[in-house]
Design goal:
Helix content of chain A: 25-40%
Number of helices of chain B: 13
Distance between the termini of chain A: 30 Å
Oligomer: heterodimer
Structural class of chain A: alpha/beta
Radius of gyration of chain B: 22 Å
Number of helices of chain A: 13
Distance between the termini of chain B: 36 Å
Largest sheet of chain A: 8 strands, mixed
Order of helices and strands of chain B: EEEHEEEEHEHHHHHEHEHEEHHHHEE
CATH topology of chain A: Rossmann fold
Shape of chain A: globular
CATH architecture of chain A: 3-Layer(aba) Sandwich
Number of strands of chain A: 12
Shape of chain B: globular
CATH class of chain A: Alpha Beta
Strand content of chain A: 15-25%
Largest sheet of chain B: 8 strands, mixed
Order of helices and strands of chain A: EHEEHEEHEHHHHEHEHEEHHHHEE
Number of strands of chain B: 14
């Protein structure tokens, strides 16, 4: 595998929630640590899958990397260059290299523009090229994402979900990006269309050598496309490693629950009646519940099974993401 | 466990007239369905196959001006027996010219009055719905507890507001919302997606309906929450024997919850029968569409080998220009030379190939 294209070091993105003028004046602001000290790297031609429940900070990571949300602290290195604190103007040339496929294609495409105009705008925005070149580039793009030329004159609402997704991908490729943040690219698609999009993303990676940060809560799809997986919980990465290792022998209790919660594990013996007692007392997580020490402890079956050890609930001993095996990191005091 | 049919749909057709194209969009095109008491029927299909429109037709929610419904929907519970589409056709007049429909004239107020007359005692009382997006179907200005109380009062069995509130709390407990007393006064924005969905389920069940229609109840939720909601539905199913029509494009969900299943494509049923018969990969005799749908789900094998998925090429059928032959012909990969002609020009009908298992495909009959 190639060079490291992206490196994230101790990244933090905190949001401040103000509940009103007076509370602000009194200094009663609430900090929401959406992304709280995470580090990872991504190599060229590789896909890193980022999984976790909604609210775990996956999307915020993607957006922070692309500079859409300012980072609170930490460093983001793209091609070895620190891009954390770049001004919007200095960031502009980098947009050619890194792009995003947005979650909701309906919201991401301008409903008043024809597909042609949408793509043309994307092609023209970072490079100075003439009409004939634009047309050629457009033809190339259509071919890459496997979209019919007849669709160019349509408006987004006339396209099906899969086609809109393709336009979104084509637009990201229009500027010649090497690194894509794919935020839930297959959510809200039918299985048949989802398969088309996944195949397309894999093809593009093979042909153009793209690197993806693949954000999804669909574990099957993540397993299928990613080389490495990072599991996020409440703004932290709790486990990271090679995909098959994580899927087959997860060490963090959270990862274990996540993978065993797949509705259908395809084993025909899977009980139809119940998914087992593991999830039974699995509460709902939120930032509001105060946590001390390991943030997963309140929901952790191991923590409860071991009689709530001091270590897990002590703020000074929050577990760190440590190597547990080769290319496998876990943040847990009692890995499975 | 299954009993007499609660809902019998015969030849349901829901068309929308597209004025710009001077043609009908045949969203639902001749569907026959039957749901027995205590049974869960799973309706599968890609988006645009007419699943949701089928549900909306049952609820009498096709109010859009160009919408036209025909067919028969017999709904039967204790002391109640109605055809939910009775007399509804009279309010629609088709203006034809040269044998083609040029315009649909609809007496909208009359139509709506008739629908209200038919559905007044049924909607929200005998038939409840859980919609796809819980957050947008709950009223953002009213605390969830109050919304559930309203549903109970609407049903009319409980008149006392305090009693209704107790009942609402009971249902919040039943759907396992933690600290229900606290959540009773929460607004939908303060709840997570999973909790909103639970509140929806509570609201739908609070009126103790004879039939529950769940339209994509797990779509858009996290994997962990999804499996929790599925578990919840399963528990409720066995605890209260609710007759359910479950609509989903997630085959795994249908497989877990349904007794029988129906596969829709292009507004038609392609296959129907017992769920574990139809939706298992190993079973042979199946409609090519069902088989292709099943094959496009990533399997263990795909994941191990990082293989390409088997996509169904092409897109969902547009139901304006329906082909003469089989609706799935253009995307079908199992057409053999022997039947190609038939597939192309003649539409197969839904025929029984084994007891209770019907398929609409030329492969299985000669």
């Amino acid at each position: 595998m190639g060079n490291t294209i992206l490196e994230v070091v101790n990244l933090k993105t905190h949001f401040v929630q103000r509940s009103g003028l007076f509370s602000t004046l009194r200094g009663q602001e609430r900090i929401i640590p959406a992304v709280d000290d995470i580090s990872f790297y991504l190599k060229e031609h590789e896909t890193l899958g980022l999984v976790g429940e909604s609210g775990s900070g996956k999307t915020t990571v993607g957006r922070t990397i692309l500079g859409l949300i300012p980072a609170t602290s930490g460093r983001i290195l793209f091609d070895g260059r620190d891009i954390t604190a770049l001004s919007p103007r200095d960031f502009r040339p980098l947009r050619k290299e890194m792009q995003m496929i947005f979650q909701d294609p309906d919201a991401a495409l301008n409903p008043k523009m024809r597909i042609q105009a949408i793509l043309k705008e994307a092609i023209g925005v970072h490079q100075d090229i003439n009409g004939a070149q634009v047309d050629r580039k457009m033809g190339e793009l259509l071919e890459q994402v496997n979209l019919k030329e007849s669709k160019l004159t349509n408006f987004p609402h006339e396209l099906s979900g899969g086609e809109k997704r393709r336009v979104g991908i084509a637009r990201a490729l229009a500027v010649g990006a090497r690194f894509l943040v794919a935020d839930e690219p297959t959510s809200a698609l039918d299985v048949s269309i989802q398969a088309q999009v996944v195949n397309l993303l894999k093809d593009l990676q093979k042909n153009l050598g793209l690197s993806y940060l693949f954000i999804s809560h669909d574990l099957r799809i993540v397993e299928l496309v990613s080389h490495k997986v990072a599991v996020m919980y409440l703004g932290r990465i709790v486990e990271m490693g090679l995909t098959n290792r994580i899927a087959e022998s997860p060490r963090h209790p959270y990862t274990h629950i996540l993978w065993s919660s797949l509705v259908d594990k395809e084993s025909r013996e899977a009980p139809r009646t119940s998914s087992g007692g593991k999830l039974a007392d699995w509460g709902v997580f939120d930032f509001e519940r105060p946590y001390r020490g390991c943030r997963f402890a309140p929901r952790c079956p191991v923590y409860h099974a071991r009689g709530r050890p001091e270590k897990c609930a002590n703020p000074s001993t929050e577990p760190h993401l440590d190597d547990i095996a080769e290319a496998h990191k876990v943040a847990c005091h009692f890995p499975l | 466990m299954t009993g007499a049919p609660i809902l019998e749909i015969e030849d349901l057709r829901t068309y929308f007239f597209a004025r710009s194209k001077q043609a009908f969009i045949r969203a639902v095109d001749g569907v026959d369905l039957r749901i027995n008491r205590g049974e869960t029927l799973g309706l599968v299909g890609e988006s645009g196959s007419g699943k949701s429109i089928t549900a909306l037709s049952i609820m009498g929610l096709i109010s859009a001006e160009p919408g036209v419904i025909s067919g028969r929907m017999g709904f039967k519970t204790d002391g109640l027996q109605v055809n939910l589409l009775r007399g509804i056709k009279e309010y629609v007049h088709l203006a034809r010219k040269d044998g083609r429909v040029m315009e649909v004239r609809k007496n909208c107020p009359g139509w709506e009055k008739q629908v209200e007359r038919l559905m007044g005692a049924i909607r929200g009382k005998e038939i409840s719905v859980i919609f796809q997006n819980p957050r947008s179907s709950l009223n953002p200005f009213i605390p969830i507890g109050k919304q559930i109380t309203e549903a109970i009062l609407l049903k009319g069995r409980i008149k006392n507001r305090r009693e209704a509130k107790q009942r609402a709390l009971y249902w919040l407990e039943q759907v396992k919302i933690d600290s229900p007393r606290l959540r009773f006064d929460s607004y939908p924005y303060g709840l997570s997606g999973g909790m909103c969905q639970r509140a929806m389920v509570a609201m739908a069940l609070a009126s103790e309906p004879s039939l529950l229609i769940a339209d994509e109840p797990t779509t858009g939720l996290d994997a962990t929450i999804q499996s929790k909601i599925v578990d919840l539905l399963q528990e409720l199913k066995s605890a209260f024997t609710v007759t359910t029509m479950l609509i989903s494009h997630d085959i795994a969900v249908i497989r877990r919850l349904s007794d029988s299943a129906a596969v829709m494509y292009g507004g038609m049923l392609m296959e129907c029968g017992p769920a574990d018969h139809i939706l298992h990969v190993d079973h042979e005799s199946k409609h090519p569409y069902t088989a292709a749908l099943l094959a496009s789900i990533p399997s263990e094998k795909h994941i191990k080998e990082k293989a390409y998925l088997q996509a169904i090429e092409g897109d969902v059928l547009d139901t304006i220009n329906t082909p003469d032959g089989c609706r799935f012909y253009a995307r079908c990969n199992r057409v053999t030379e022997g039947i190609r002609e038939k597939c192309r020009y003649h539409e197969p009908d839904l025929r029984e190939i084994s007891p209770g298992h019907c398929v609409r495909c030329w492969l299985y009959f000669d």
